[in-house]
Amino acid sequence: MMSSALHPLPDGNVGRRSWFIVGTLALTVFVTTSNGASLGAFLPQLAADLDTSVPVLGQISTAVFIVSAVVSLFTGPLADHYGKRRMIAYGMALLAVSTFGTALAPSYGWFLLGRLFSAFSAGFIVGNTLALTSTLYAGDDRRRALSWVTAGTASAPIAGVPLLALLASVSSWRVAYIAVAGVSLAVLALLYRFVFDDGARTHERFSTATFFAAYQPLLAARPMLWIFTASALRATSWVCLLTYLGAFLDDTLGLGVREIGWAYMLGGAGYFAGTKLAGMQLGGLSLRVLYGVSTLAMGTLLALAFLLPPNGVQIALALVLAAGCSGVGWVMLVTLMSAETPAGQASTMSLNAVFFAAGAALGSFAGGGLLVLGGFAALGLGLFLFSAASSLLLWPPVVARQQVTGNR
After folding, report:
1. What is the CA radius of gyration of the chain?
2. How remote is the C-alpha of 120 from its chain's centroid?
3. What is the pLDDT, as a whole number, of residue 200?
């Protein structure tokens, strides 16, 4: 039972109220991630309705990812200054407005504008939700709470996107986005009903100096820079996989679009299971050891999937297990980040979002280069090397040497 909320609960029922808090926060990232990942499911309908091409629509995802990371860089210090729940609420309201506006889009330009506003909302929501969870809980309760909130993200490709695709198939993509707008407003109401603010209130004016002061402790702390770099390398490996997995399955196993979609859902289920496993005790091992082992295992399994002779069952098993290891690793990384940060939780998660975005961009670029150089075998080897490097950066003996070097 999660019971170590840092702020007193007025009804005195800490355990019961905690589940409502965590459930609401998980729902916020579930809705946000489902909306962000829904574009691929609607591409054929969108191309026909908006009189454009699938490749042109596909470029929206890149723009959305960049905008979300940049916005997050600014909303983190704002959340530490004025309150995280307030920023999340602004994001949910903006998500409702942007998705409703997207549903009314008569042209590609209007649709693009709506998706960019949705990216703004994600910049307010995702990092600040993790930050608020880390603020409200401590110790093992923090890790368990973060595992549930992260499971909200993992549930998006398993349940959120398929539900939106089903709704679009019996109506249209416009109805699906209107549904997202309605659910966003419902989540906004739950946010104010169940989730306590972190109490960050000040009458001081937010200034440029405040912004830079929020990040100065993070940039000056070498251990945090290693954590952020590990996060970037992990993103490089994972996004590289997600970008080219469909092409690998098509080329190696001859799978069609529908079967590839099921493969992504299977991976999402593995990731979800991993996030839930991360909430358990796991032998009392340290966060760094658990992150190192799970991330190295992820890279090894991905390499095996790409390098061994093609076999559908073997590849599916390796991908599901790798996704599960990735889920464990992400929860451990976020928990470690929140426990060791010398700065505000929201600023910490925001700076991590920037490193993550850089790693993701590198993953797309490096994956294409590896395919040109050596095909899918080279890609599999690259996935292992990126994962191994991320694992090594946070491995306890390496960290000890980093600290000794830093003190000289």
Report:
1. 21
2. 15
3. 56
For the entire predicted model, the pTM comes to: 0.78
57: CATH: 1.20.1250.20
| Domain assignment present for 9 | no
Provide the token pair at 397. 């003996």
Cβ pair 119, 152 in contact under 8 A: no
Assigned domain for 5 exists: no
Q: Specify the DSSP class assigned to residue 311.
A: -
Distances (CA, A) of 189 to 14, 90, 93, 185: 21, 12, 10, 6
Roughly what angle, to the nearest 10 degrees, separates helices 345-393 and 108-136?
90
Same domain, 187 and 223: no
**236, 364: one domain:** yes
Q: How far apart are CA 96 and CA 75, in angstroms?
A: 18
pLDDT means per 10 residues, the chain with 408 residues, are 40 60 95 86 83 79 81 91 93 97 95 94 92 88 89 83 85 94 97 81 76 92 95 90 82 78 83 88 82 96 93 92 94 93 92 86 81 91 96 75 45
**Does 261 lie in the same domain as 233?**
yes
Question: How many domains are contained in the chain?
Answer: 2
Same domain for 161 and 38: yes
Token couple for 82: 């004025």
Q: Are 355 and 229 within 8 A, CB to CB?
A: yes
CA atoms within 13 A on the CB side of 208: 0
| 142 and 196 share one domain | yes
8 Å CB contact between 2 and 165: no
Neighbouring residues of 182: CB distance < 8 A, sequence distance ≥ 6: 96
Q: Counting beta carbons within 10 angstroms of the beta carbon of residue 26, is it exposed (0 to 12), middle (13 to 18) or buried (19 or more)? A: buried
What's the residue count for the chain?
Answer: 408
The verdict on 237 and 334 lying in the same domain is yes
Closest by CA position to 357, among listed 76, 59, 36, 65: 65
- Write out the residue range of the structural domain in which residue 88 sits: 14-206
pLDDT at 257: 59
Q: Are residues 274 and 378 in the same domain?
A: yes
| Residues 370 and 287 grouped into a single domain | yes
Which of 236, 241, 228 lies closest to 333 in space, CA to CA?
228
Q: What are phi and psi of 344, to 5 degrees?
A: -65, 150
276 and 151 Cβ atoms separated by less than 8 Å: yes
Give the residue carrying structure tokens 């299977």: 266
**For residue 161, what is the DSSP state?**
H
In a domain, 108, yes or no: yes
